[in-house]
């Protein structure tokens, strides 16, 4: 794909409507869309917009993440990003047209669409005092990694900002560090990454893992905002640099070490020895040209290698994070599912419920309000953040944690904790077995067998047949009841009950959905 032009040449017309931005141009160009003078969204015209039927222009619909904000009035300005040429500037009305449009979070902090297409607290909305803790943490984490044997450096957008501008890039929303391991085998690189994670956890940092060789450090900014500091591991092998999450390129060790330095926001940090080659490997030869809409175009061969080596634990993570983002994270209704009511009716005297795949945490919170100590576990723990905070403030006996059925250490760790609980317990998993693969199901059975080795039941609900209304198709796969029974019995479980329920469709003209329910135990 050719790089965008560095001027506004031959952009003949820009129109903005409540549904889209319309552009007439013969050239690829990056456009910034501003609300009342503040950049909120940027896009490449030919890459991101769709061609009009008449062949005369391009139409870029408003991103779905902005839809809920487009109600009111705003001064919309469209500029060519590199040249700054103003191509459109008008007061417009959206939706009801009442009030000013404010693209802000629940605390009133300004949001912008970052390089990943997510609404975030981008750096161009933050003050120096607000980002100072992030810079402090960059220095602290770099020192900790160095003490643990990893000579880490600024990477990706953070390196780009330091080299090109000496500052954090305005449209970016996180900070990136990288290191090149002394190991050359992926298994050793993974073991080293977990060792580095443990060191940072011991320092008090909250860590969430992306893959076998990359993790995120949560950093609190001055106003309480949480900023991600990503740590990407890499290694040199077969004449190539492999760096999570996007790089595989011919490279030489002396282009990385010995590390040099660069200035970022007035502070000096380590950088690769040859920053030009490193940034060209990351962003291509045009890395010096600012591009707030940059998209990584990773070769399929690189994607396959990095997936096979390091990403087995994050299958469908991105899809689930999108599911539990934006407007879907508004305050949830507190009505439990029929499944939760069924479990509680079966066993009202439980001491513990271990709710695997708790999602928003509604069922887990409800179980806790019935007096049951509840442990909500999910692939994307932020989904339950609101109810976790509510439970803590109300003294409701519920706790929530990050749990990954694709990561054996997660399964064994939580399984060992559950095995030590005292009292009667049950494991619940609603639409979990049908949302993972065979490996994930095997680990679900492994976890349940550990948690229930001294008694208690596993309660499952899963999709047997989707309905005519299509509900349940987004993340779920169908599972025959016989297959689930066979897998559980092969793991030593005894099936106490199974049935198939028909769930009426939302649309009366559609076919009903069929859902399986099953109860199993490992009691000796």
UniProtKB/TrEMBL annotation:
Name the record gives this protein: SAM-dependent methyltransferase
Keyword Methyltransferase: yes
This protein's UniProt keywords: Methyltransferase, Transferase
One Pfam match: Methyltransf_25
GO molecular function, one term: methyltransferase activity
Signal peptide: none
UniProt cross-references to SUPFAM superfamilies, sorted A to Z: S-adenosyl-L-methionine-dependent methyltransferases (SSF53335)
Chain ranges of the Methyltransferase domain: 353-402
